[in-house]
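User: For a benchmark we're assembling, each entry needs the component sequences followed by a predicted structure for the full assembly. Here are entry 17's components. Please fill in the structure.
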Amino acid sequence: MQTRILAVAAIALTTAGCGLKDNAVVVLPEADGKVGAVVVHAKAGPQVVLNKPFSSAQAWRGGDMAAVDEPVEKEMVERVFRAALAAKPMPAKSFVLYFQQGTTTLTAASEPILPDIFAEMRRRPAAEVTVTGHTDAVGRGPVNDALSLDRARAVRDFLIGKGIAPEVIDVAGRGERDLLVKTPDEVPEARNRRVEITVR
Amino acid sequence: MKFVAVAAAVAAALCASASGWAADGDIGRIKTVTGTVHVLRAAQQLKAEVGLGLRTADVVVTEADSSVGMTFTDTSLLSLGPYSTLALDSYRFDATTHEGGFDTSLSQGTLSVKSGKLVQQAPEAMKIQTPTAILGVRGTEFVVRAAAE
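Assistant: Structure for entry 17:
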């Protein structure tokens, strides 16, 4: 009888992921140690902002996520979430290309980046690519939106010419929204006139 | 002769959708699968395979000893462990402005998340509903566990 109780307790502890409640959210540090934040809007009580590495909000089944910011052990996270963490796809990787003024000919400095892009695509299952055009701050916003989209489309054609399947490429024009080098409006800056290729 | 051409076209269309590259309406794609994973879409139960496109309203379900990893067009990553059910309730991502929203519901199981451009653009643009709370994502990496009520 006693051994059966112990066995049941042991199973309960194991399946409960001993120490972490049935419902939990744990904020994790990124590779560089930085951490974002998750806001927990529980059904009752004030919201909790989790913004420290391994901070958590937890609740038993049928309960409510209490406004308590409990730190959890890294090892516990790795154990309870082992399968989900192992199934994570590779994070997206971006490459920046520069083209000779008004053409789709890569600058000399950008040429060697192409093989890196193709290698990145080869190492990912079902790889996809987003080509995003950017302008500098010269010209009106809507004009730059159109210009950057045209540039992205031209680069898309260029990549198709290099053997990448059309259906895995999508395009976007971000205009002057994402200045790599911050300048005041209407200031030309060659380093901003770029195309970003993001592989996911 | 025409019948053969039509049949070939139909076969090609079916093959394209089976391989997952029907790009219109795809909000994301499956990149890793282990074990038994399905995507419930309308009245269908699709076998989750690497390359399958994902759409709004899809429900991703994993069985015992199974897991799945997904990327979305805003570069966010979501992955599930075993015995998990995640509904992709709504997804909007404007590639020009990075505005939009991504709502999911984890009714049970384990989920790992790395947020992307939607959240970079607007905090809490990504929301995850669980049995005990709604999570507003400000970034970037976190895990969620849910127990079915």
